[in-house]
Every structure is written in C-alpha cells, then in structure tokens.
Amino acid sequence: MVSIPPARRRQLRTWMPESSTDRLRAAGENCDGRSLADLASNDYLNLARHPEVQQAAWRVIQAQGVGSAGSRLVTGSRPVHQQLEQALGDWLGWDTVLLFPSGFQANLAAVTALADRHTTVLADRLIHHSLLVGVQTSGAQLKRFAHNDLADLERKLDQVRSARASKPLLVISESLFSMEGTSPNLEELSSICQHHGARLLVDEAHGSHLLPGVDPQLPKSALHVGADLVVHSLHKSSTALGQCAVLWCQGSRIDPEQVERSLGWLQTSSPSALLLASCEASLADWQTTAGRARLVRRLQQGRVLQRRLRSDGLPLLPTTDPLRLILHTAAAGRSGLDVDDWMMQRGLVAELPEPGCLTFCLGFGRHPGLGRRLMRAWRKLLRKQTPPAGSPSFMPPPLPLLSSPALACGEAW
Question: Which of 384, 381, 362 is nearest to 371 (CA)?
Fold first, then answer.
C-alpha cells in the first residue's frame, strides 16, 4: 500500500460551532476565524440544538448530575436506561434492545457474543473497523466477500457448508456504507443467511434515516428485513449529546442473555442519563408527523441538488443516499485529499477524503447556495490547477477484492 506523504494528510483541527447555525470556525493558534459550511457532521437529523432536546438534557442534569456511576452490572443502570430500551423495543416490536456508550462498543460486543474460534465470519470487505476488531477478539475465522456482491457471499457460504455442515456462521454487513454511499439488497442478504443457517449482524450506524420507512426509493432498514442483530449509533440519528448506541436483537437464533453477558456491555460504564434523556427527546421528535415530513422534504431536496449538480457537470458517484454527495475527484485526475484541502480553503468542510473521491454530508443542515458554491469551487480548481505529472489512475469505490486472510484473525494476531 502506498504511504501518503505527511504534508498531504488531513491534519487534526479544532472547530467551534457557531451558535444557532450549521457552520464552524477553526479554533486555536494560527487560525483566521473564517466561517465554514459543515458538510461533515454526524448530527444527520440536525437535532443537537432542538429546544426540547436541550431542555430534556438540562432537566436530567439538575436531577442526576452528569456522567455515569458505573457499568450496567454494578450501579450504572438507571430508570432512563430501562425506559428507553423498553420504548424502543415496543416502537418497532423487537425482542431485546441494549444501550451502549458507542457504536464501536456495540459492534464489538455483538461480534464477540456471537462468534468464537469455532465460528466462520463472512464479512463485506468494507465493513467498519470496529467489526473487524470484534472478529479479531473473538478468534473466529474471517472470510471477506466482495463489496455488496451477494453471489460471492453465497459461493463462500456454500464452500464453508461443504467443508463442514455444522460450522457456526455469522455474516456481517452494513445497510449504508457511508463513504461509498452504497447499500446491499438486505432482503436478499437476509434470505441467503436464513437458507444457510447463518446469523446476520448489520451495522446501520449511518442509516438512521432508513428507519422510518417514509421514502420507497430508500433501501429498507435492516430492522425490517429479518436481520438478527442491528446496531444504530444514536448520536448520529438522535444526537444523544455525543455518544450512545443501541443494539437490537431479535429471533430464535439469538440468545439475549448471551449478548447481555458480553464483556463489551458489562465491563464498560453505562451511557449517562444525560445522554439518554437527550436521545429520548430527539427520538420522540422524529417519530412525529412533523418530524417525518421534514425527513421526506430533505430527501427530496437532496435528490434535486444531486440532479442539478450532475447536469452542471459535477462528477458525482451514484449513491443510494440522497443526503450524501460523493465527488469523484479522480474523474478529473485529482486526489480526494488535494480536493479536500482546496474545498476547505473555500469554506466547505467535507467528510474524510479518500484517494479518488470526497464525501459531503448534507444532513438537515441549512446551507443556502451550496450548489453554486460547490460548482464555483470545482470549476476554479479545474482552471487553476493541472493534475500533477504521473498522477495515478483512480477507480471509483468500491475497489475489487484482493484476497481473504489465510489465517483466522485470532491466530494471525
């Protein structure tokens, strides 16, 4: 793998949100104090400043203070934990709902609860690092299948079953791969897993807007297609004031007690009541008619913006998510890292860049004139800069699968 020169890597920056806006200012020494449009925020539904969410958090601060007293097994369980878990389960009819401090920990706990050294894990090659850490920790054998290629997955499942019919199997994927803007056919994926007797874990951290089912053009949420376990990052879907996640468990192939006994749940401090109060209030908002209507309008606006930008010549990659713009910088011979720096100098903060593309998160932020600003910055880049000599040719993501590990992750490490 080619190393990226330090001068071209995105540097750690400190940002100060502007009050009551969707903009940021760089903070710290040697900063010019310019205002930038935040197109990288994980507050997808723009609820962090919702007055009812803030008031709910403030009421809990006054009653219980901030922070958590310990793990759920010791003294960290509060009424708000059980209330929110029960409310979430009742809302969607799921058997067991468990709250975690972060999506990383929920993924880690889910994998280690379901897999051990006797298990074969078949994972999409672009799953999140936290899931791979879970596989490594469990000692399971890992096999990767090509991104969203369910035929490749089925071939590998057939191979494992032919070698050992009773082999425990766990399939891992995501409902929306955030950097690529792609989604698998989850209904087909669930059917394949059921046919082969494999349990299915889906990370839906970036797909919170799939959950309400308000738009037939969106992929279905994993919660509605038969997955055994689903992870949501609530700080993305319902603010949760920073960090909180929920693990949904359902069906006869999952033992809820096995998940509850996971060290990832028992041996970490529980999400504080402050986080959960804000989360509960924001979830209540986007279950309302008004909240769902806002989501529908924003999805329509995202599609209109994508169509207009494409017609104006901006090279956008296809995506199943209308709230993401994935600029194919490689189409003009530019690296996403270089274009990221160019855009930031012109007041547009994108999500983490990749060698051949750059992702912008629209969310529910208000950015008047965004389309014009993007086109103006892109055209100026094409006029002012020529691609460096000997620039490598880029392929749009996902890149082809290279290989699968020869050893189980636990052995290799």
Answer: 362
